[in-house]
Amino acid sequence: MPSLRSLLGAILTLATTANPCLAGALTEIPGANDGQAPLPAYLARPAGAGPFPAVVVLHGCGGFNNVAVTWADRLASWGYVAAAIDSLTPRGRTTVCGSGLNEQTFDAYQALKFLAAQPFVRADRVGMLGISLGGGSALTALEHDLVEPMFPVKFRSGVAFYPRCAGMAGVMTAPTLVLVGELDDWTPAAACRDMAAGKTGTFGPPREPGDRSMVELVVYPDTHHSFVASELRDGIRLYGHWLQYNEAATQDAASRVRAFFERTLGN
After folding, report:
1. What is the rounded distance in angstroms from the CA atom of residue 216 to the CA atom of residue 234?
2. Are 39 and 31 in contact (CB under 8 A)?
3. N or C terminus: which one in the chain shows less Cβ crowding within 10 Å?
4. What does the radius of gyration of the chain's CA atoms come to, in whole angstroms?
5. What pLDDT shows up at residue 219?
6. Are strands 81-85 and 241-243 parallel, antiparallel or unpaired?
7. DSSP secondary structure of 68-113
C-alpha cells in the first residue's frame, strides 16, 4: 500500500494538471476506525475566515478525477467549503465500475464529521454532491432509514448527478436534487422517474408508499451519461455504455446546483 504522502502527491499532480489555478489544498480525513487508512481529500475554501456552509464531493466509479476537482473549485467560488474525497486509492483500487463501492457512503459521513469539526465550517449546513457512483452514494446517504440513522451529524441536502436510481426508495431525509440525461444508458432516467414517483416500474424492487417530496428530478433531453465531464467532448464507449459531455446541460446544471445549495445551505 503506498504511503499517504505518495497518495496525496498523486492527487496533487492530477489536480494541478486538470486546473493550474486551483482554489484548494490537500488534506486527509481520518478513517472510520483505527484500521482504516485516512482518506485523501482536496479541500477548496472561499477567501476569508468563515464560517461557511460546506459540501462533500464524491467521485464516480473511475476514481478521483478532474470532475471532482472542478466541482470543488466551483463550489468554493460560490462561497462553500468543498471536500472532494478519494475513496479508492486508500483501498488499493483504481476502478469499481464493474462492482460498486458501498463504503463510499460511509466515507461521505466521515467527511461530514471532519468538516463539521472545522472552525471555518458551519456544522449544521453541510451538503453533498455525488457524480455517477458518487450520486448513488449520495442517494444512499440521504435515504430515510437506510444508513442515515447510524450517524449523529446529518447532511442538510444533496445533489446526485446521473446516479443509479434503481433499488432506491426515494424517501429522503433532506432535499435531494437529481440530474440525469434522457439518453443515459448506464443509469437510466426512467429509473429515476420511477423513484421520484414511487413507482416500481421496470427497475428495482417494489417501492413502499412514502413521502417523496424531497426529491427534485431534472432530466436533460439528448444527453448521455457523464455529461459534466468536459474531457469527453467527443464521447467514448465504456463497459458498453456511451459517455459524453454536454456543455448546455452542464451550464444549466451548475445554475440549478448553485440555486439549490443557496436554498438549502444558505450563502
Report:
1. 29
2. yes
3. N
4. 17
5. 98
6. unpaired
7. HHHHHHHHHHTT-EEEEE-SSGGGT-S--TTT--THHHHHHHHHHH
Q: For 84-134, what is each residue's pLDDT tens digit?
A: 999 888 887 877 887 767 889 999 999 999 999 999 999 999 999 999 999
Tally the residues of the chain: 267
3-class secondary-structure state, position 212 = coil
Model confidence at 17, pLDDT cuts 50, 70, 90, reads: low
In the structure grid, which three cell numbers stand for residue 245, read together?
A: 459531455
Nearest alpha carbon to residue 176 among 132, 141, 219? 141
AA identity, residue 153: V
Kindly report the pTM of this predicted structure.
0.89
188: number of Cβ within 10 Å: 22
Q: Would you state the cell numbers that stand for residue 43, as one nine-digit string? A: 479541500
- What residue ranges define each of the domains in the chain, with the CATH number in brackets? 4-264 (3.40.50.1820)
9 contacts: CB under 8 Å, gap ≥ 6: none
* 176-219 pLDDT per residue, tens: 999 999 999 999 999 999 999 888 766 556 677 788 999 999 99
